[in-house]
Amino acid sequence: MTQRLFKRAAGDKAAAMERAYFDADRGCIELALERMADIRVEFPRDAVLEYAEGCLRKDSLGQGRRALQQFRLAQEYEPTHLFSAFNAAKYASSEEEYRARSAHARHLAPADPDLRLFDEIDGELAAGRTYGELLSNFVALAQQHAKYGDCAAASELAIGTGDWSRPQELDLRRARCWALRELDRTEESARQVRREDYPPRERLALAEALAELELVLDLDPCDPKMLNFKSAWLVLMRQYEGAIAAADAALAVQPTGYLKPLTNKSLALARMGRHDEAGVVAASAIEMAKGLGAEFDDDVTKARGLLESLRVNGDALSDHEQLAMYAKNCMQTAKLTAEEAENRWGAKKRGFRLAKGIQKRCARYGQRWHPDYISQTAEIFHDFCPEWVLVALFELGNTNQAAFEHFLHAALFVAAQAEGVMARDACQFNVLIMFGALEPQLVRSSYREAVLAPAAVDARFAPLAGRMRAALDRLHPELPRLVADQSPIDASDRQRALTKTLSRFAGDMTIGSPTAGRRGCALALVGLPFLAIRRWLP
Prior knowledge:
By secondary structure, this protein is mostly helical. It folds into three domains: 12-170, Serine Threonine Protein Phosphatase 5, Tetratricopeptide repeat; 221-312, Tetratricopeptide repeat domain (Serine Threonine Protein Phosphatase 5, Tetratricopeptide repeat); 319-533, no CATH class. 71% of the residues lie in helices and 0% in strands. It has 27 helices and no strands. α17 packs across α20. The longest helix is centred in the middle third of the chain and has 30 residues, at 319-348. The protein is flat. 46% of the residues are buried.
């Protein structure tokens, strides 16, 4: 078997790219880029893929130079690719490149109405404007119309076009910082709607904003507002010590009449568990606000909210209550994501039902296990998001529970043996299946039986424990402790893994081979968890 566990055909590129677009639309840019890298393994030198990634990097991450690099690659691989020709000219890094690439775009589509933009640029250049000035004007126009990706991308390109005065460079870099934070805010809002955590390593736009902010502070190290932005953004990145240091630096520059660094410092202290110190800082912000006027009312409200949250957090939730809350939230998020995916596919392919398609695939095997379930499961994860697969398999379980169980076992194998984004999708699915129990003890026992024990017994499943732990951490940093941290696997756990979970994988595992192993017993995650999911998924 290959690491992908199924053979990707030429037609699979479109499905994989649709998955990447779906991830990006949900604010999961890091996952979308990982999926594009996975597509590139089997479709190298592909103009459509390079163009798509260039647009994603420009629109979602404000990466002007990197986007231009992708558009150039698209042109290298397929010179007649029209969209990349236009974008390579529109986001060219110099006047010389602009003239060459706009001439090529005119040659490809001499009657295209979008050429009016190039006519305007040519006119400005003929009037004596520099190319850098035109990019700077593009930045201002994008900023005015809330085109944050264009604003950030054009700012980066403009800075690289030539010499700017210090104030001009500061204006461009500040515009880029602001636009990048707005891109991050958009993605944050998309996740908040689904009550989904936003791990720092996935906040690529905010990481880009912080890198740009450091360049701003190199030019003007005593700007209290930019120091405060650094403090606030480091809180979002869960770098609390750095956030406190940045807030202190802002207060050192402007010790009075500026409350935001105090509220950011208080929040960072609270997130670190230093509640008494956080309360003192929040109270000092409220005291400082007296006599400053109504313009500081929002800061006072935030400080009072922090004090109230500190009082509420005095009665911390137990581990049992925390896990129950996280499981419930994750299942609600999964339901919303599944609905988004189903609506998206329904608009493209009328009458398409994923559960019906899966049922047709497994009908040939009746009630028995077959290794082909592994390749089928891998292919399903390639084409569809784990949340929608969860809903479809639940529907399958209503009519063919044996096939439902086979798919669950195959998903564990895929999570252990696949690589890259497919392993990530399989792990996400497995976590959701276990969280469907909602009852914390059932979640932990399912995890022990389905993940920890097989990983300890069978070398093929050894990667499963680490990968599933990473999947838990992506959902919330507390989950690895609440779910995965358990006592060592004992002899009874090992025996149960051999007779239940691993029994299907005892024989020849070659895809397409005759039935291998015994059907075995259902996992702990098939009984009550299966029934509990009914309450949360359609």
